[in-house]
Each structure stands twice: as structure tokens, then as C-alpha cells.
Amino acid sequence: GQSLGRRDIDAAKKYTLTCRQFGMVCSLVLAATFVLFGRQLAMLYTTEAQIIAEAAKIMVIVAVMQPMQTSNLILNGALRGAGDTMVVAVITFIGVLLVRPLLSAFAINILQVGLVGAWVATVADQAIRSLVSFFRFKSNRWTTIRV
What we know:
Number of helices: 5
Distance between the termini: 10 Å
Shape: flat
């Protein structure tokens, strides 16, 4: 936002992409932690073997989601900082209130895959929103918004 205020579009892009790269490194470390220690993390909350096993599966799914979620948060932050708030709101609205619930309902009720299906639907939502945010960022339309 500050770079755009100075009319330095290249710096705004560079800062965003640098933040995204750093975010990817952090998300991959977090993802590795979830994969490697998911069972132990679950054991902090319960001693029930069935819940620990289910939680460990879900931690792997959450690990897969981390890079997409991180990218989505960083790109949407940059778009909001540039004043492109309506697009971010629409992307979020469609994902959280339409895509995720519909995919979750389909996974749970039609495919009968339970909690794992709901989490896979969340990953799909994050992937879609991350892609849409990325394409919006790459379009450079956000660089011409006047706040």
C-alpha cells in the first residue's frame, strides 16, 4: 500500500512476492511439523487412540493446505492494502459461504467420507481462493486503484 502511494508499482510487487516466498518457507516448515508430529500434537489434547489416529490424518490434510492458505492470506493482504477490497471480499464470500459448505456437504453426505471429507473440502476452497487471488494479483488491476 505504501509503495503504491509512492507510485512505485515495482516495489509493491516485489514486497508482495518476497513476503509470499518467506510465507512459503514458513508454511512448509509448519506443514512438515504437522506431518511429522501430528500424532504427538493430537496427544496433547486427548489420550483416546481413535481420536489421535483421526487427528493425525487431518494434520496431514492441514499440512497440504498450509502453502495455499499462506499464499491466499499474503496475496489478499496485498490486494486489500492496494484498495482492492471488494474483490477480496467477493473471493472470500464465495469460498467460505458457497464452495466450502457445498463441497463439505457433498463429501460428508454423498461420498460418506466424514470429517476427512470436510477437511478436503476446506483444502479445495483454499486452493481455489489462492488461485483466484494469484490471478488477480498477476492481472495488475490492483495497481491502478485509487484509494
